[in-house]
B12-binding domain-containing protein (Rossellomorea vietnamensis), 223 residues
Amino acid sequence: MQKQIRKLTEMAIAGDLPEIHKWYQENRELPLSTIEFYEKILKPVMESVGSLWEKNKITVAEEHLATASIDYLMTQLRYQIVHPGQLKRSPSILLFCLEGEQHSLGLKMVSDVFRESKWNVKFLGSSVPTEEVIKTIDKWEPDAIGISIALSPLLPKLKDCLIQISEARKEVDILVGGRVVSLYDLEDFGINNVHLCRDLRDIESFALNAQNKSQPVLSEGDS
C-alpha cells in the first residue's frame, strides 16, 4: 500500500492526469470500499503533499496541481457511487465550507460517503457566506447540514453560523468536521444537535444510522 501511496503522490504533484487515469484503471479492482480507499490511500497522499509543502520541498503551484489531480481521481470514483434513482424519501444533507475556508477536497470525500449511503446531497463548495447558507436551508429544508472548517481563526465565524442555522431550523442535525475539531472543544458553543466528526468513519456511522431511521416500516401487506 505504501508503494501505491508514494507513486500516486508523485503523479499528483506532477499533475500527470493521463498516468493517474492509467493508475486508476489498473487499481480500480482493489478490495477496498470507497471510504477505505479515501482513508487508506487518498488521505495519506494529501497528508504527504501537505507535509512536503510545509517543508518547502514542493512549490505552491505543485501543491495546487496535486489537489487538482486528487480531485480528478475522486471524480472518476464518483461515477461508481452516484445513485441516480434516489428516492424522494431519502434523507438530505447540505454541505459547505465555512466562509473563508478555501479547501473543499475533504468535504468532497464527505459528500461521496453520504452518496454511497444513498443520501440526497447538495454540495455548495468552498467559502460560502452564512446568509447564502440560510437561504438554501430555507428553500431546500435539508435533514442535516455539514460544515467544514480547518482554520482556527474562523472559529468565531463558525459559532455565529451555527447559531444562525439553529435559529433557522432548530431540530436539524449539524455535522462539523475539519482539522479544528481535534484541536478545540467545540461543545463549549452550547448549541444542540451538533455532531463533531473527526474522520470519515464518524461520517459513515452518522449517515447509515440516520438512513436506517428514515426508512418506513412496511406492514406485511406492503412487503
Notes: The domain at 92-214 is CATH 3.40.50.280 (Rossmann fold).
